[in-house]
Amino acid sequence: MEKEISDAFNKQWHESPKGTWHVMHWMGIKVLKTPTDMWVYQELITRIRPKWIIETGTCYGGSALFLANVCDGLENGQVISIDVNKPKRDVKHPRITFYRGDSVAPETIEYVRRRVTQGPVLVILDSCHKKKHVLKELALYGPMVSPGSYMIVEDTCTGRTVQKEHGPGPGDAVDEWLPTQNRFVVDLTCQKYHLTFMPGGYLKCVR
Q: How confident is the model at residue 76 (pLDDT cuts 50, 70, 90)?
């Protein structure tokens, strides 16, 4: 019953046409997330204190700014935000590098590997939500994540509890990829606030 209620609330929150995540902002910049997931992000960043946060999928740039502001409070950390398009808003922050390119392109991976030479490293996957693309991201970015840190797969609800017409998405990619390796486990404690767009998508690196 608890899961059914949680799924229904998440679906209602996601599909509200004129409210919720469609009108959320951080410091005036649009952010396409839930406030509860953002709260979990700041908890994880405060605990892990990552040297680098790699974000695939920039959109407006609000989430990158949020991550950078959390790093400001800790006086630690840099953000690399990757997207095929430039940010929809002009976001500037000394802790953020916006990289324009396909998140799974060889030149993008080479750029990230060249920059990210120290850990801890936290990865957030939020670009194309097609299963095939997310599987590539999991394989390429998974090895970069430091033990004790996380790889967070955004919008695992897509194609499942919401937007069922979408077809196989991030959640299906996680289901296929996770059993093939032994470094990551699903951390359900990150879903403690119930409202989340990432059910089963908080992957903790255990070794």
A: very high
pTM > 0.85: yes or no: yes
> What is the torsion angle, in degrees rounded to the nearest 10, for the CA atoms of residue 12, residue 175, residue 178 and residue 4?
40
Torsion angle defined by CA atoms of residues 71, 19, 23 and 194, in that order, rounded to the nearest 10 degrees: 10
| CB-based contact 152:124 (threshold 8 Å) | yes
- Domain at 65, CATH number: 3.40.50.150
What's the domain count of the chain? 1
Please tell me the distance from the alpha carbon of residue 162 to that of residue 169, in angstroms, as a whole number: 11
Check: CB of residue 136 under 8 Å from CB of residue 37.
no
Q: Which domain holds residue 40?
A: 2-205
State both tokens at 69: 């502001």
